[in-house]
Amino acid sequence: MESLNQTLFLWLNAPEHPGALTLMVAISLAEWFIWTVPLLIGIGWLRGSENTRKTMLVATASGLLGLLINQVIGLAWSHPRPFMIGLGHTLIPHVADSSFPSDHLTLWWAVAFSLMLQRGPRIAGIGLALLGIPIAWARVYLGVHFPLDMFGAAAVAAISSWLTLREVRWYLEPSYRLASGIHHRIFGRLIALGWVRE
């Protein structure tokens, strides 16, 4: 399996001197698109109904659980990144920690899968899930992940989104009350002006 992982990596990894446009697109996908997740959740919370806000909380819980599962996996089994074993070309800096599964894609897909499993924003979830594929390519292309790290991320994301939806009765209402209290405290003036939804 490791031999296949490395072979696929070398097939997808960037050449030593990639084209400027391809490099720019890959870096944008790999490093900047992740900010779409908190932006989407923030907009959904600030402008959405109570149901939308609860959907965003479940998606947030899914992402956080996925990252927690990744930490446990990384502690139990530390898998080196390609540059840690001198494989391929690395075109962006990255800390030398465990590569499996990808935190980036776990967070992305955990939120996407959560939205897909819930009633309201399924189209947004499908769009995010599909956009995760070029992000996964970019992380491998730039040399910071192996292909199997992405399959691991998808598996963890699927588990975390399923678990957080299955156990929603245990945490959603208290977390919604807490988040609503913080929301009113921070945005009280903007709510009064009608710029932010109550």
TrEMBL record:
GO terms for molecular function: undecaprenyl-diphosphatase activity. SMART domains: acidPPc. The chain crosses the membrane at residues 20-45, 57-78, 123-142. It comes from the Bacteria. Keywords: Membrane, Transmembrane, Transmembrane helix. One of its GO terms (cellular component) is plasma membrane. Residues 55-165 form the Phosphatidic acid phosphatase type 2/haloperoxidase domain. Pfam families: PAP2. This is Undecaprenyl-diphosphatase. The lineage of its organism: Bacteria, Pseudomonadati, Pseudomonadota, Betaproteobacteria, Burkholderiales.
